[in-house]
Predict the structure.
Amino acid sequence: MPNKKQMYDKGKVVIGLCILVALMTFPFWYNLGKAAPAPEPKLSEKAKAAKECVMPKAYMTSGHMQLLNEWRDTVVRDAKRIYTNPSGKKFNMSLSNTCLDCHVEKAEFCDKCHNYASVTPYCWDCHIDPKEAK
Amino acid sequence: MNISYMYSLIAVIVLFLLAYVGVNFPGGEVFFGIIIPYLALIIFILGFINRVIDWARSPVPFRIPTTCGQQKTLPWIKSANIDNPTTTGGVVVRMILEVVFLRSLFRNTKCELKEGDKISYEWEKWLWLFSLTFHWAFFTVLFRHLRLFTEPVPACVELLAKLDGFLQIGMPGLMLSGVALLAAVTFLFLRRILIPQVKYISLGSDYFPLFLIFGIAFTGILMRYFTKVDIVGVKEFTMSLVTLNPHVIKGIGGVFYVHLFFVSVLLAYFPFSKLMHLGGIFMSPTRNLANNSRAKRHVNPWNYPVKIHTYDAYEDEFREKMVEVGLPVEKMIAPETPEEPEEKE
């Protein structure tokens, strides 16, 4: 009768299983010994003074891309430049002139989280950061 | 109403509620966010190894490759070196094509009675196409998720995400793999309920992974495009898991925990289910053996030792008697040496 203890092609099977374990635990050893604190986007003095952005902070952190997308469509397609937020405050819909006016430093504000979450928005394909452009 | 898929659907809905409601209880975030995922990963790895070792212990007594072409034979007959491999190289190519392109599924045919009683076989490529889409989309989605588990994010992950979202539809950019995954899993489900023969042989264990994967893709898409989740918070949490310093981040939201719980359930369920074809494909004797039984001798591994008595030994034993009755022998008794035939064992 077959000996149930014996493994056939043991070498190949063990190599295969080692590859599996290595792949499944890849994040654990890739990050070994690396501290990766979550980024703290730096608010400029002007932003701090304004206290609130166009929308509440919770909405802005997760939904700012949607807002910007809507702004772009409204400006480009309907040529409307004024945005009124739910509390009645009016804003000029402009990335460079409104957003970057408060959040002065793109590298300290936008890029911090974007790099951490590995997102590369294509805003900057067309828009320029006035500071970087120099 | 089909019991098989109703039970699976109910099971997935219960899992959804379990995570969605359970996370609000005290300690729920630790339970669903930390304990369950770690446990699931451990079950997956140990279960997978256990299953594969169990398979590796099953002897394959003889070569049973499925042969889909001319075997290697006389030099002037063209042989199919991949479809009927005789060398390890051929087997490797065949395995790669099988694993990466699901080649044997490509040959899938549909058998139908047409015009009454005329039997017809038709090449049925939709199953192959959607299976391939499903597997590749799932892989892409999985690979893209490495961005949440690595810091800094490897360039290849960023590149894949860029390729995946190259259409630049909407904000956040639409990832094609997510749509493809959802579409393919829907097709694979509809196929099971719309084709009567397939429905007949489908079991709960066929539907459950489909619903579960649908749930995973659905909650993922929901979070990315609709309900929104604080991605930096999510990454902070996932990074805390993989740096073995787990801590709960507040305010990530119920849908995220449902997503995580679904993935954990899938991982833990994996080694005990049909999903083990991930390991099984490499272990299939009909794919991974070279068809070389005419060139090489393969000994059945459970052959027990047989006592053999060769003709030489037989003649040595009975030569004297054979000569006496006039039977032909290969070695004649040397006339002057009478001691030789006395060799007995």
User: Anything to note?
Assistant: Strands of chain B lie at 109-114, 118-123.
